[in-house]
Design a protein that fits this description.
- The complex is a heterodimer of chains A (321) and B (295).
- Chain A is mainly α.
- Chain A is built from 16 helices and no strands.
- The longest helix of chain A is centred in the C-terminal third of the chain and has 29 residues.
- Chain A starts with 5 loop residues before the first helix and ends in a 7-residue tail after the last helix.
- The model of chain A has no long low-confidence stretch (mean pLDDT 88).
- The mean pLDDT of chain B is 88.
- In chain B, helix 4 packs across helix 7.
- Chain B contains 14 helices and no strands.
- The chains are: A mainly alpha (321), B mainly alpha (295).
- At the A-B interface, helix 1, helix 2, helix 5, helix 6 and helix 7 of A face helix 1, helix 2, helix 4, helix 5 and helix 6 of B.
Chain lengths: 321, 295
């Protein structure tokens, strides 16, 4: 019979030795460790401490408290959210704008990419690409300033409609709350559609030209070639993008909102992000604002998982993520 | 057979014509509004008040630019914008490359833990308020360093650099080690020069981000002396929006003065982006691939 006792001792020994080896190696690598540790320190301070700071969503935090002395209130803040009319208004606006952006903004880059792909290589193709990528690099503040200029009563937009005889009196549509969702959506498309084509174009460049040759011989028209060759080849990237877009439904563009929102269109322009900003930064209700932010991120994660499952089913049961 | 091919040929020509026409329309929709902003910025206050032009102003004038440059704030804001972009990009790229280099070594002790931490930072964040409280307790409110320090590190960029460093042949490093070079020496004199294209891509996109960023200022800065151009422009916009709402009564003159200043500031704020744009273009594809990895 073998005595079972020595085994754990031996295990302990190797664990101890391993521990020692670790630090010996660590010491030998001090040059490399000195490179990585600032990064680790950064992550602890700038990522993990704020994650820990999410705990104020379950507390009543006021200016005189520190994070640890603030009293716990459990789910109190979340209960208030459920009854907060302004919060639900911001949810409706967020979802409304997101659906507009999804319904229109998701397809436009795909169509644009196909159109650019169908152009024969040459100067025109380059010009189209150069120009359509440019707006992506303008900040939302700059674009907001431009939009305000274009939509002002003496601006480009009103001038254009007057010239065409579509309106008789100039009107600033940025002050019209009911048009805000359209303005937010279309300005976003104007800015990002061109840039959105790059990834699609990179994928399309990898499609084997032999497919098109074969289709041509079979007498397929250009539109049929697009439908039966180009689009199916982009299935994976399109569904991946779709998942990401859906998981971002509760997200919104804070820069865009802050620059385009005014007292006249606020009822339709206030989104969750800007509401968190207003409650937290303007009104100083840190706990409540954090609770709103946390609640929405949890819902977003659930959406991401759901979207992944659904598109996985559509995509022959292959999960894209 | 011949007829079928001919039909296809005609079909293709129609398709091309329609395609080119539509894309021409797309470029017009992008170019005309931009052009309109530029020429409006060069037009006189009176012409702006009357409106009525799209391609060319009635009265060409530099008065808007004169008004902007008469205000000392613009020089200050321009300096802050340049300083935060240059310093921010340089420190960000170096910091990420340093961490990425260490993480690219498979035998690095504790590597698994470091990578796990990095992945967590990609998917979770404390959000606006907890981050604000942290910045506040670090004493970074109303400090220039709030533009630099929290922007030092991005795990996405670390991963990109790490993957690049991994593909550098081991032989280079081994021969340097034989010559007695240490880790820092190898990193600085072999790996950094080799990775210039990747670093340039990261630097350019990070630089555009720094230049265009205004949320950092909005959240953490109240001292006007630290405002970059974007924030200055934002203040002008908010001001002119308020006036636009009140102007129904007839303060059109004030409105157009701020409008002119706003337009000129927009053009000045965007100029640097337009200047580096041709340079940026060389890195579009690689930049988008970085974006794909990021997503």
């Amino acid at each position: 019979m073998v005595n079972p006792e020595p085994l754990p001792v031996a295990a302990k020994k190797t664990r101890g030795r391993r521990f020692k080896e670790f630090w010996v190696d660590f010491g030998r690598q001090w040059g490399l460790q000195a490179m990585v540790l600032p990064g680790v320190l950064f992550m602890i301070i700038f990522s993990f401490i704020p994650i820990y700071g999410l705990s104020i969503a379950f507390k009543r935090y006021t200016v005189i408290d520190t994070l640890d002395t603030a009293p716990w209130v459990g789910l109190e803040n979340f209960r208030i959210i459920l009854e907060d009319k302004y919060f639900w208004d911001s949810v409706i606006n967020t979802l409304g704008i997101s659906f507009f952006k999804l319904a229109i903004g998701f397809v436009v880059p795909i169509i644009l990419a196909v159109m650019i792909y169908e152009l024969s290589a040459g100067r025109f193709k380059k010009i189209v690409q150069t120009i359509s990528y440019l707006p992506h690099f303008l900040s939302w503040i700059v674009l907001g300033g431009m939009l305000i200029t274009w939509f002002s009563t003496t601006g480009l937009f009103n001038q254009f409609l007057l010239d065409l005889g579509l309106i008789s009196k100039p009107q600033n549509i940025l002050l019209d709350a009911n048009k805000y969702w359209w303005i937010a959506t279309l300005s976003d498309i104007w800015k990002e559609a061109g840039w959105g084509t790059i990834l699609y174009l990179a994928i399309m460049a990898k499609i084997d030209p032999a497919y098109y040759e074969a289709a041509k011989i079979d007498g397929a028209s250009r539109l049929r070639q697009i439908w039966h060759i180009t689009i199916p080849n982009m299935k994976t990237i399109i569904s991946l993008n779709l998942i990401l877009t859906i998981s971002g439904l509760f997200g919104s563009n804070l820069d865009q909102t802050l620059v385009l929102m005014n007292s006249q269109n606020r009822e339709k322009a206030e989104v969750i992000n800007s509401y968190v900003y207003r409650m937290g930064m303007t009104q100083g209700d840190f706990s409540y604002a954090t609770a709103v932010g946390l609640g929405v991120s949890i819902v977003s994660v659930i959406l991401l998982l759901l979207a992944n499952k659904v598109t996985g089913k559509l995509n022959d049961n292959q999960s894209v993520l | 057979m011949n007829a079928k091919l001919r039909k296809q040929d005609v079909d293709g020509r129609v398709f091309n014509a329609v395609n080119v026409a539509l894309l021409l329309l797309v470029t017009i929709i992008i170019v005309v509004p931009l052009w309109n902003v530029v020429i409006s910025s060069f037009s006189s206050g009176r012409a702006l008040a009357e409106g009525g032009f799209i391609f060319w102003p009635q009265e060409l004038s530099l008065e808007n630019y004169r008004a902007v440059f008469n205000d000392n704030n613009i020089y200050q804001a321009f300096f802050i914008s340049v300083a935060k972009t240059v310093l921010g990009v340089a420190t960000h790229v170096f910091f990420c490359a340093m961490v990425g280099y260490a993480l690219s070594k498979k035998n690095l002790r504790g590597r698994k833990l470091y990578v796990a931490m990095g992945v967590i930072t990609m998917f979770f964040s404390g959000g606006m308020i907890p981050t604000y409280l942290l910045i506040k307790s670090l004493g970074l409110l109303n400090s220039f360093w709030v533009y630099i320090i929290p922007a030092l590190f991005s795990y996405y960029d670390v991963v990109i650099l790490m993957n690049f460093f991994r593909n550098v042949p081991d032989s280079l490093e081994e021969s340097a080690k034989m010559d007695g070079a240490g880790d820092w020496r190898i990193f600085l004199s072999i790996f950094i020069p080799l990775s210039m294209p990747v670093m340039a891509t990261i630097a350019l996109f990070n630089g555009v981000g720094q230049w265009n960023d205004f949320m950092t200022t909005k959240l953490y800065i109240t001292d006007q002396a630290l405002y970059p151009l974007q924030m200055m422009l934002y203040e002008i916009i908010v001001q002119s929006q308020t006036q636009a709402m009140q102007s129904t009564a007839g303060s059109a003159v004030i409105e157009t003065t701020t409008k002119g200043v706003q337009l000129a500031t927009i053009v000045i704020t965007t100029m640097p982006i337009v200047v580096v744009y041709p340079l940026l273009q060389r890195y579009f594809i690689s930049g988008m691939m970085l974006g794909a990895v990021k997503e």
